[in-house]
Amino acid sequence: MAHAENAGAIPPKVDFIVSPGLPKWLQQHSTSFGFTSYQTGQLFLVGLMPDGGISLNQQNYSQAMGLCWDQGRLYLASKFQIWRLENMLRPGQIGNDRFDAVFVPRNAHTTGDLDVHELAVDAAGQVIFANTSFSCLATVDPVHSFRALWRPAFVSELAPGDRCHLNGLAMHDGAPAYVTVVARSDEPGKWREHRANGGMLIDIRTGNILADGFSMPHSPRVVGDKVVLLDSGRGYIVEVDIANGSRRNIAFVPGFMRGLEIHDGFAIVTLSKPRYGTFAGLDLDAELQRRGLAPWCGVVIIDLPTGQMVEWFRLEGDITELFDVAAMPSIVAPMSLGPNSNELMDTITFLP
User: Fold this and answer.
1) Residues of the chain with pLDDT under 50
2) Which of 85, 159, 172, 333 has most Cβ atoms within 10 angstroms of its Cβ?
3) Is the Cα dihedral 148, 42, 38, 269 positive or negative?
4) Residue range 140-186, pLDDT digits in tens
5) DSSP per residue over 289-306, as a string?
């Protein structure tokens, strides 16, 4: 069991255990990855040490949720801001004798507390995010907290209150294409009464419901002519046919899933232990009991064609809940600096 490294304020204690093949998998697929925990308010970056072991770097970002990798930079949604993190290293430079990327928070757009879930960047470089509090898709605005782009037809007004729990965003050809909602509801908080089977996948370009009957769906991702999403209340990764809305189960995962990244034909998924009431009344609870499994917190890597779990990264200690995950191709060992870390004050780079 190894301990996480933090540069900044002392975080909650986090221990991790990894599958024996994870270092080789990261090397073979030329990637590292990052994930967030809103429970502890942290960004974690996972890569390889020079000796081939696993490196885990963590930094504090209040209520860290949505995470996106785009053209060599990271975007992260926190409690009331959306951050842009830039790699400050030039080609060939190494940070702290072992990191080939050092991500520094260079910009923060203040949104206020919108309960921002997933976010992405479109072809024009515009940040798009699931504005869960206002039940819409939105983008940043230089003057205002956000600019609304789209909301479901059954949501009657643009107002706070989280009416349908719009939480997941899928991009296609550089533009938003699909969202997941937990229920068709137009009353604040009413979606909670329909967690078991009220979830929907909506094509925002047409407004059509592509598929429904999901239990707390999250994280839709376009893969060819299918959409892969997390049917979290059931515990299954699911594939939906775009042409007709038919679906099939890909794999069962022993925890509550909230984040999904597709990389080289594999699904990288975050999963969490239950907090009070999270699993109550959901099929996931019964399925775990039927299989004799205990839910756990961590990241799993699933081979999409076979549905087999090939590698895993398991967290123990004070952390029990994760949110989003992002693959970071061609980065071997990433680290970051937090917005309130001491190191950030003394870390100055410039162009002559």
Assistant:
1) 1, 3, 7-9
2) 85
3) positive
4) 999 999 999 999 999 999 999 999 999 999 999 999 999 999 999 99
5) HHHT-----EEEEEETTT
Contact 156/169 with Cβ under 8 angstroms? Answer: no
pLDDT of residue 340: 87
As a 3-state breakdown, the chain gives helix, strand, coil percent values, each rounded to 5, of 5, 45, 45
Whether residue 86 lies inside any domain: the answer is: yes
Determine the structural domain holding residue 286 and report its residue range: 2-8+19-339
Residue 130 in tokens: 């699931």
Q: What is the longest distance spanned by two Cα atoms in the chain?
A: 63
Please choose, from the candidates 227, 201, 232, the residue with its C-alpha nearest in 3D space to the C-alpha of residue 215: 232
Q: Indicate whether 64 belongs to any domain.
A: yes
- The partner residues of 300 in beta bridges, in order of sequence, read 269, 312
Where do runs of H (alpha helix) occur along the chain? 22-28, 283-291, 342-346
Q: Considering the domain boundaries, does residue 158 fall inside one?
A: yes
Asked if the structure places residue 351 within a domain, the reply is no
Cα dist. 126→84, 106, 144, 220 in Å? 12, 16, 15, 19
Give the number of domains in the chain.
Answer: 1
